[in-house]
């Protein structure tokens, strides 16, 4: 079977899967509606239940399985971007995230820090670097009032 596309419906929480079997040319649709979804805290458990229920669609397809988990997370928090790496930490309100989402964002922040840090073994390392911040143009800010 070949998964063609996923659809999300937020009310009620539903994932719709369009697929085609190998011997048929006709498209089919599987509708998975989640009862009491707001009470479900374990997204991975819910994903495993869906994968077991639709094993013929997802068997051996890791990228589709990852996409399904991402969609379930999206159903849980519709305001969250699908790709965590595109979160603008200066704009996005992190106080609205769940603990799992905050952990993911913190991991992203740690990875960004590790990628940008300069250690004493790096080329261009200066031990006691001094920077004149007065020469940098200042941006207007509410803090300055």
TrEMBL record:
Q: Which InterPro entries match?
A: CEP19 (IPR029412)
Q: What is its main location?
A: cytoplasm
Q: Where in the cell is it found?
A: Cytoplasm, Cytoskeleton, Cilium basal body; Cytoplasm, Cytoskeleton, Microtubule organizing center, Centrosome, Centriole; Cytoplasm, Cytoskeleton, Spindle
Q: Does the keyword Iron-sulfur apply?
A: no
Q: Which UniProt keywords apply?
A: Cell projection, Cilium, Cilium biogenesis/degradation, Cytoplasm, Cytoskeleton
Family the UniProt entry places it in:
Belongs to the CEP19 family.
Name by which UniProt lists this protein: Centrosomal protein of 19 kDa
């Amino acid at each position: 079977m070949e998964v063609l596309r996923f659809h999300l419906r937020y009310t009620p929480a539903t994932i719709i899967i369009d697929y085609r079997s190998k011997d048929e040319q006709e498209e089919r649709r599987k509708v998975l509606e989640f009862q009491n979804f707001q009470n479900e805290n374990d997204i991975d458990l819910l994903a495993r239940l869906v994968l077991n229920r639709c094993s013929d669609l997802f068997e051996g397809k890791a990228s589709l399985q990852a996409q399904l988990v991402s969609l379930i997370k999206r159903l849980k928090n519709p305001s969250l971007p699908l790709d965590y790496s595109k979160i603008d930490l200066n704009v996005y309100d992190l106080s609205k995230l769940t603990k799992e989402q905050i952990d993911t964002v913190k991991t992203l922040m740690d990875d960004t820090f590790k990628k940008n840090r300069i250690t004493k073994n790096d080329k261009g390392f200066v031990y006691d670097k001094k920077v004149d911040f007065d020469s940098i143009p200042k941006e207007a800010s509410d803090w300055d009032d």
